[in-house]
Amino acid sequence: MHVLFVTSEAFPLIKTGGLADVSGALPKAIKSAASFNGDIKVLLPAYRGVLSKLTAVKEVASIEALKQSCTLFSGYLPDSDVEVIAIKNDVLYDRAGGPYTDESGADWNDNALRFGVLSRVASLLSKQDSPLNWQPDIVHCNDWQTGLTPAYMKLVDQVTVKSIFSIHNMAYQGNFDGNVLSQLELPAQHFNMNGFEFYQQLSFMKAGLFYADQLSTVSPTYAKEIQTVHYGFGLQGLLKTRAEQLTGILNGIDTQDWNPATDSHLIKPYSDKNITGKKAVKKALQQQLGLSINPDAPLLGVVSRFAYQKGLDLLPSIIPQLVADGCQLAILGSGEKALEDGFVALQKQFPNNISITVGYNEPMSHNIMAGADLFIMPSRFEPCGLNQLYGLAYGTPPIVSATGGLADSVRDTTPETIKNNTATGFVLKNVTDASLLGTIQSAVKLWQDKQVWRKIQKNGMQTDVSWSSSANLYLDLYEKTLDLHKKTLSQ
Ligand code: ADP
To answer: Is the pLDDT of residue 207 over 70?
Structure first.
């Protein structure tokens, strides 16, 4: 089985969020699955700095897509045998700033073309005359940036190779003015409701949902949620009609990068058998962040994008009470300016208890995950969420809302779940500031009972959050997609 895994980010090459973690880890897990007999290649744009992070890089082909001349480079993900094909076109991809936005956070105004080219190249590589001399059986697309691939495969290249489209977040759909259609070389007759049009706009996400042979998303609960008005962002109707082809598979974590026993970012490693190192990490973190160094102050951690989705706007109003209760808060993230400014003001007001680091900082994210006593994640919706999984692995029980992957991965602490050793975190009744405060307060109360707390930590640390079982579920999905294909051919 040959798989082309198409993505707009992959850790450690380029990362803005969970999609990168998945794209960096899932192909590795698939490749090493005992039942996988085949090959998987990751396709992504060669943004600035990407090629220098690959190992054994070499130029392998040239290709023209949407009138843009591209060079394809092959290399390997660091410390891995997963091959990456990077699309080099310096006009499109070699820029300062992020993969989707410039340095001020504004979307690149040629994103339709930039990700149109990514989608177009993926489709061209699925053809028999692919310049790679390698043809996939399955093209696995991820999120809107790759959404046009299934449309090109079906409508333009008319290949029989199968496509899967995975939804990592319905909130980001890649909708553009219809006048980009001709630049993207899409057949205009499909710019309608039964095609890639979404309210007079071209929608990359809708194209993926409409034309892919199979769909998946990153948790079973989110697979159900997105078929409803509240979570479907206007595409719930289409998702409902495709419910039979939609599978929810919970993400795993890369246990090479996220393991407290081997994490090189930490001052001291620790594990569920010997957790004492966690205390040293907490102390170092308090010191680094300018918080008062106090092992008895419950330290709450936040690492997140500051977006409405994440529910962090519930925090500022309850911070004075948390401080009065003796809690400390270590926050890392960036996004909505008002929230950034609000946290900065609270840090000024409570410098011994509140720390905010605005920006993206991989080592600090590991140290907060390890040094905190509790991890806060009150998302309004959460397709899967990775931080709560890191929290489980790092003995930092997460406080989460009951949505998407959070609901599928965290078991609330109740007298019963304490007794039967299944409690791993704390689940909010409602996404409100009162509910968040109440839940944090009861969690902190339990934290003081060291025996019960060790149990909760252990339950989380012993939960299998690796990719191994989920990678097998993706393999089942690949098999199913190919079997369906064989069945159609033999009819
Ligand atoms: P999303 O993809 O919606 O942002 P996830 O929880 O799925 O949320 O994944 C977020 C990933 O990005 C995690 O690996 C998290 O640690 C990381 N992350 C988010 N913000 C930051 C930041 N400011 N610094 C470092 N890592 C961050």
So the answer is: yes
Residues 353, 292 contacting (CB under 8 angstroms): yes
Say if residue 489's pLDDT is above 90.
no
Nearest residue (by CA) to ligand 1, atom 9, is 18
pLDDT in tens, 190-206: 999 999 999 999 999 99
Span from the CA of 386 to the centroid of ligand 1 (angstroms)? 7
Residue 303 Cα to ligand 1 midpoint, Å, equals: 6
Over the stretch 308-328, which tens digit does the pLDDT of each residue have?
A: 999 999 999 999 999 999 999
Q: How far is CA 278 from the centre of its chain?
A: 26
φ, ψ dihedrals at 303, nearest 5°: -135, 115
What is the 3-class SS of 36-99, one letter each residue? CCCEEEEEEECCCCHHHHCEEEEEEEEEEECCEEEEEEEEECCCCCCEEEEEECHHHHCCCCCC
Q: In ligand 1, which atom is closest to the CA atom of 377?
A: 6
Characterise 201 by phi-psi region: left (phi > 0), alpha (psi -120 to 50), beta (else): beta
Residue 450 tokens, joined? 């060291």
Q: Which amino acid is at 376?
A: I
CB atoms within 10 A of CB 53: 16
Helix (H) or strand (E) holding 128: none
- 446 contacts: CB under 8 Å, gap ≥ 6: 413, 452, 453, 456
Do the beta carbons of residue 277 and residue 266 sit within 8 Å? Answer: yes
Residue of 200, 196, 88 lying closest to 152 (CA atoms):
196
Residue nearest to atom 20 of ligand 1 (CA): 304
How far, in Å, from the CA of 451 to the mean position of ligand 1?
31
Nearby residues of 451 by Cβ (< 8 Å), 6 or more positions away? none
